[in-house]
## 1
Amino acid sequence: MRTHLTPLLLPLFLLVCPQWAEAGSFRAAPIKIFFDAKTKTTVLKVTNDGGEKVTVQLEAFEWLQDEAGKEQYNPTKDIIFFPKIADIAAGEEKIIRVGYQGQKVGNIEKTYRLFLQELPVSSPGEVSVKMAIRMGLPVFVEPEKKLKDRKIIKLELADGSLSVTVKNAGNSHFVVGKINVKGLDESQSEVFSKEKGGWYVLAGASKAFPVDLPKEDCLKASKVKVEAEAEKDVMTSTLAVDKALCADKPKPPMREALSESDGEKE
């Protein structure tokens, strides 16, 4: 009798643009789905690259961001798909038909996520402890005309971190690819440089991106210059450093530190 553990891979949502997204032994293409007034259906290809059959279950959720930029997911019937559960033999590909049946989109883009979750299957005579492999693909229903309005609206220094808040006042999502933070001294010479990966900012939402800023680096700078890259645009802002706010990041309690090592990553 064998016992083994399959590592946990939580919701996956790629920011870059390969032609497929991969989670464990299966992958999906395309990694983003777009609908508009003329396009209401599409095909999703799920391929099993493993050596055993996989069973994948699909679920759709409306995807929102609250005032703090936190992701929110609500069950929805706007996105339809068939089949809802797919058995995929080793080395084979399964076609999933996906469609949009929600209300006509007005001036604001509608956003969803389609989750593909592998259901654990044990072989006869095997005691298996398997964790759910789950992949999340974004689904966008685009407005007729896109309007861009994006900027950094707030920089805040506290507890060893610089919080960079980006506002999307436009009518469709964008992706903050990365955030560059440079510390400048009184002579405008660079004393440190930091880089942080970004995330989606949905229409009408704001999202704060924390960038670690240790006390040692913070004390060297008289101001910080921030650049947030969003596709072809670069948003910029500066903040005068109040050295009284320079501090090292508090260490989390042991339980929290352990959960961070295994938890969900955006």
Note: The first strand starts at residue 3 and ends at 6.
## 2
Amino acid sequence: MELTQLKYFYAVAENLHVTKTAEQLHIAQPALTQSVRRLEHELGHPLFAAKGRNIVLTEYGKYLKEQLAPILERLDTLPHELETLAALERETIHINVSAASTVVTECIIQYRRQNRNVNFKVVQSDSAGMPYDIDISTELRHKGENSSTCIFTERIFLAVPAVGKYAGRRVIRLSEVSDEEFISLADVKNLRTICDKFCREAGFSPRIVFESDNQNAVKNLIAAGVGVGFWPEYTWGAMDSPDVNLIGITDPECKRDIVLTCNENKEDTCEVRRFYDFITDYFEKLFQMSRAVR
């Protein structure tokens, strides 16, 4: 049973006249008659009956017409709905953010001020191979840079209470804090993996005593002397608490890459490319400005 057969049947059922229907559909009358007969054969029931020189619907034909009406009407609206969806999709940028989420959010806000017609769908997913337009991720050392990838490298500092045994320190070996308790940002799997690797290189596993999904909570707990923690150089913002010091780690070298990748997922990638250029420029300015302040 084919869609064309059903459409032909419905048109004949509306007109109850084969010749007139064939003219409307711009097909030969024998071809239309044959299509209806094939449909009757497939269904196993007669759909039309002769009444004098005219035709009428059988009970089976009436039922089929009634059932087809909303389906065919829905099918007629689908092209317009799909075009509307396509237009919306062209104006929607899908972003997967697994690093620097605060910076990305600030960037989107600025971009939207200048481009009110652009929509964003932002997710945080570790799923590989998903069709995101732009991926923002973090790696210890990214390999394979190309024209669709921008890499920004930042140091990872050790955040410690401003008072106590680390007061006044500018640099430190990570092994010196092997006995300390650590405060960590929850749900930042990739950064946690990188920092755990730094600790293993220093010969220990960090004892996590508190995890929070809020950077301010991490900062305040460190300020209160609950423990120490890692603090990325740029993407977590400047340390604005006088009760927390950031110490450079000399051994091992603690750095990570923020990787911005533009994927060619759409037929029309102009809007994605414009935003990708905007966000890479935003990151470049952030990193340059932060270096100047430091």
Note: Helices lie at 3-15, 18-25, 29-43, 59-90, 101-114, 189-201, 215-223, 270-293.
